[in-house]
Records
---
Amino acid sequence: MRYYPVNLDIRNRKCLVVGGGDVGTRKVITLLECGASVTVVSINASEKLLKLAESGNIELKRRPYTGTDLDGMFLVICATDNERLNLQVSIDAENLNMLCNIADRPDACNFILPALVKRGDLVIAVSTSGKSPAFAKKLRKDLEKQYGPEYADFLKLMGAIRKKLLSTSHEPEEHKHLFEKLIGRDIVQLIKENDADKIDSILAEVLGEVYRYNYLMKQEE
């Protein structure tokens, strides 16, 4: 199987999760982090899901799944240990040309979910195309050690600089060489060392004296 890698914008889109156990709960949390409007259908539900429902963050329907639960949904994720139910959700979604993921059942999916490393706006996706989720998990853990929280701050800084440069009405292509210079100056390590003075020196050299690390970071808060 060859998959087409893609990042979906699911902000405010209706997404269904069938299953309220540990796996289903993890799927719900990830969907919420990406801004989805989440409905969960499950007779049983974890404490976390109950709290999310109580606070109004999700809609929880504590009953068996029916085909009409897919009405108006953008995608569905099924996370149960009931093979018959998993297959039924897959068939129903396929009939509606809907995005469908069945946890740990790549043959019943039309998309699979990679292992993720998240550092703010930096998202690194690791996929073995369903061949070995355990190896994908191992790679994710290795990458988490390599890419620490300083990368999140680095992207905040790059975003603030880009926004400021674009405000001067220049075309984005004109800024490419500036970002290449900044990336080559190992600012990530300086952020890790909390060396704002050295970062300011680099920003002044490449961009001009008006660019200051702490000020730019505040702009992104």
---
Amino acid sequence: MSEVTHRFVETNGIRMHIAEQGTGPLVLLCHGFPESWYSWRHQLPALAAAGYHAVAPDMRGYGQTDRPEETERYTQLHLVADMVGLLGALGAETAVIVGHDWGAPVAWNAALMRPDRFRAVIALSVPYAPRGGTPPTRAMKRAAGETFVYMLYFQTLGVAEAELERDVRATLRRVLYGISGDAPPVPVLAKGAKFLDALAEPSALPGWLSEADLDFYTGEFARTGFRGGLSWYRNLDRTWELMAAYQGARITRPALFIAGDRDMVVLRNRAAMERLPETVADLRKLVLLPGCGHWTQQERPAEVNAEILAFLGTLDEARR
């Protein structure tokens, strides 16, 4: 079987680094925060072995991909356009798009806005939620009251950067452990807290995360900083404004949703997950992995790979 290879492509006005493996129908793998293409290290060879061309980019603002300075260049429209442009750079008419964490909204919105280019969607951790009637940060402030909300904390330029970049390795160790299935539940904090205050310090790394894995992530974010990834959060309201035409829209492409039952994102968005059969017209399967936290495809690679390949198999069987 071929090995993972790396190259750069031009897409939507930026230079994007991609990791790829295999040949066959295209599967795009979109990572979240704070990650990189490397978060799909277990999926690339599995997809390649099954006869797919698996491509995991460093998303806009991350890793070796360009990091535009302007915050407003990180809306969901930019991010979906990056994926459409990536299809063009790869010479592909269509792809199945897979997303985890922030990559999940990109995958959902790609299927929503360009169903002609994305034939199916697989989302991990973050369920689809149609555009609501209130700007997201306003809704968060109303719901939060006197409690800390990390997405609101991330809004002010420079504040989260200073905290997260003070000790990059310590930050990533606490983030990757702290919302995994191995950590205690994330506590509710009072307004005025900082992001890392809620995340436990591990006495040892969990079995799914090696020192070499942590070395890789640390090297990337020590070089790039966190501003690119934080810019995604800073476009919540801007994206909401730009997507007014999609108010209440449903996903119509075949879909698979996978998450851990100890994932704080799922626990706090349970209503959206329970509404998936209504908001996603062709939801083929909803999988909750017992004991799994937020880092779904890294914590449970064998189970995630099996579900992805089974879903892809049903798509390709239908095409024959």
---
Amino acid sequence: MVLPLAEAIERLGSPFAIEAFSAVAGDPVLAVDFSGAELTDDDDLAAAYATLPQLACPSIAVGAGPLSAAGQRLRDRFDVVVASEAELELLLATVRRTPQAALAAVQLLRHNEHLNIHEGLIAESLMYSTLQAGPEFATWLGNQPPPRSQKPNPEPAVLVRRAGGRLYLTLNRPEKRNAFSVAMRDGLVEGLRVAIHDPSIAEVVLAGEGPAFCSGGDLDEFGSFPDPVTAHTIRSTRNPARSLAACGSRLSAKVHGACVGAGIELAAFAQHITAAETTTFQLPEVAMGLVPGAGGTASLPRRIGRQRTAYLALSGRAIDAATAADWGLVDALEEANGPGR
């Protein structure tokens, strides 16, 4: 149900608002119609401003048109803005299926808006670890086929090559569309360690072999963590997102094909991203009962803002390269040049 703006403001001012809009105690989402809104600075919006960041559910503003200054300030407090009810339905489908993960995602984005990258990565890891022990992820995992037996790949999961002052790090599991695995994490961290501690390296270039830059986390490894606490400790110790961020302005990325989950979360730390025109970008984790866990809640909002990051996470929708460029998720587009690129 989409509430009229006046009714939403009134309900947000109630002392019972937090429980009325809750993933466990009330409505699992607050959706409000902003079309035709005519708020002024004389309207009493203080309670709505204060309550929105505290809600135990996602808040969605419907209507992306121009507003008065007061209306814009209020809409900026919402977790997501969509232009139409058709777009709203995409988000609601995910929220209804995994309300706890949806809440966790927007809470994390609200929280990380005020943190530096390191603090944001710690918060993300804690939230991700919590959800790994939750019922929604357990349900998703229980519906997955058994992991496939695979022959060990003799090739390194990450190719490291230096040419003068430039270091190339290339994701190298093309047969798996560069699904992000433990071996790939370790290879990336080891390569980045060289870049971080060698000031003669002027540029670090992140790329991927095969038809996709990175198709997200390796599903065959999902659920293989020993326990959530140990998983968090490992992420706190060996986190490629932190290493990528440490490269600062030296880091660039060239992406193509599918950039799913980790595939865009990690690349978004780069100072400059070039994408093939056929590239697509997607955050599917909330529908799995999780949140983006490869650094995306720290990297993506710095490029596209909290609300667009929340839109990607809650909708699970894939966006094309042109949209990504328009949003600022990538900096330049180039023609695909070869199979899948």
---
Amino acid sequence: MAKSLKKIDIIFIPDSECPYKVLENSIKKNKEDIIQNLIDSGLRGRGGAGFPTGLKWKFGAKAKGDEKYIICNADEGEPGTFKDRKILSEVPRKVFSGMGICAYVTGATKGFVYLRREYKYMVPALEKEIKIFNKKAIELGLNFNIEIFLGSGAYVCGEETALIESMEGKRGEPRNKPPFPIQNGYLGKPTIVNNVETFVSSMMVCKMGAQKYSKLGTQDQHGSKLFSISGDTPKPGVYELELGLNVADFVEEFGDGDTKAVQVGGVAGFCIPRKKFAEQIIGQGPTTGGATMLFNSSRSMYHVLQNYLEFFVEESCGQCTPCRVGTQQLLKGIEAVKNGNKAPAYLDELVKLSETMKISSKCGLGQSVANSFASIVENFREEMIY
């Protein structure tokens, strides 16, 4: 059942010392109890893949290695997403506290914030906060410290293994899996990679308790979520909302009165047309990355899709053929149909190609192209032709 739209204020509650108090209290508890609390909360990763956070930390705790690493993925390359920037700007101590709790339960001794290159201006302020955290960790007897690693601006490095390759000084390309980073990650050591928002949410679960946190959201997705809202909206910005929202209610709150489509989950997500607003729920299935774009009747969905495909063509690492060639053929295909060089029926072949990419591409970039492509072509077919 859909939830009524309700703004939540959990992540951005202003407090300077509270996060480290939560860390201090957490490292006095049994490690297994902390992991079980996260599992019971139902918290899933907030970066897009939606893997259960408690299970990832459990696997990290069991992983064998003389050294373990924690990486906070702050690459945030998804178009329309700017929530992690706000978190790191306003409540960085909650991020570092979450990383510290993860270090305690998994036995990791080194942490990195993999920061998007475009966020380089944030480094001085973050390094100041990291210095405070590292000192606090020593005071608490926690053998763990954090430093910043600047990315180089590649979208594909939002994928955890491509991110690790980048950190090792290699070309940012996804690795074959298995093994997963939990077994063989940074420098061949067990590595836990979580999104910025995931570490904050983990810290909040430790503060609130699983029972209270799990009351928010749906049966599939518990808790709240940060949404980066942009496009044709009078209320752009970052909002914390309960998962399980009806799209119609979302549009009522953030639309401009003429919304014809909502893109949920950024360019890697799905485009929902007006006729389906009432039946669609935000928060069913895998968690989205949080980028939510609204389009009104003045927008050409053909040009929206063309823009998405140009982005995918540019950002494909080129390692696997389905993504490298597939993205180019999809772009050329819709342009050919629009120009009259291909019959409208060719769109069906392009949808089949996108579905093939979903099952044959190596990483999430190529696998997710079909989401936006198929949903826009199927729901706005006439705009692809005329």
